[in-house]
Amino acid sequence: MSRKVKQLLETNLASRYGAAKEALVVNVLGLTGVEANQLRGILRKKEIELHVVPNRAMRRVIGTGALAPIAKELKGACALVTGKLPAVEIAKELTRLAADYPKLELKFGLIEGMDETMPFDRVAAMRTRVELIGEVVMLANSPGRRLAACVAGPGRRVAGCIKAIAEKLENGETIAKVA
Questions:
Q1: What pLDDT is recorded for position 179?
Q2: 82: β partners
Q3: Do 77 and 52 meet the contact criterion of CB atoms below 8 Å apart?
Q4: Residues 120-134: pLDDT tens digits?
Q5: pTM for this structure?
Q6: Residue 107 · residue 28 · CB < 8 Å
Q7: C-alpha torsion 101→105→108→109, nearest 10
Q8: C-alpha distances in angstroms, 120 versus 116, 135, 136, 162, 178?
Q9: Could you tell me the fold of the domain covering 3-126?
Q10: Rounded to a whole number, what is the distance in angstroms from the first to the last CA of the chain?
C-alpha cells in the first residue's frame, strides 16, 4: 500500500473512531462472507457498526485517545464494534448472536471511563446504565418506604381503635373504662 493510501485509510479511521470512548473487539475471520454480511445486517438494524480494521493503522489512530488501551491489545484479525448503544448493551447483543454464529470470536472490550480493556464476558455481564439508575433509585427510596411504614403503623392501630369504638357506640353498646 502506498503512503498516500495509508494516510487516507488513517484519516478515515480517525474520523470514525477518533471521538469514540468505548468499543468492543471481535474476530470475524472464521465466518463465511455470507455469514459476515448477515451479521453486519442484523447489527446495522440495531445501529451497531462492525468494521474489520488494520491493526497497525488502528494503533496509530487511537494510540493517544480514549481507545488507547485497545491499541495495546490488537493482535491477529480484529474487527471493532461500536454503535449508538452503550458497549454493555452491544456486548449482550453480540453474546446472543454468538449462539447463531459459533465462529464469531468475542475478544475484549473497553468501556467509557475505564483505563484497561476487559474480557468480553465481563463486559456482557455488567449492568446497563438503565439498570444501574433503577437500582440507585430503589436504594434511595428504601429508607423512605421504611420510615413511612413506621409512621403509618401506629396510626393504623389508633384508627382501628377509634373505628371499633365508633361501631360500638353506633350499636348502642357501652364502652368500659380500662383501669
A1: 63
A2: 49
A3: yes
A4: 999 888 888 788 888
A5: 0.70
A6: no
A7: -30
A8: 12, 24, 25, 63, 71
A9: Alpha-Beta Plaits (3.30.70)
A10: 103
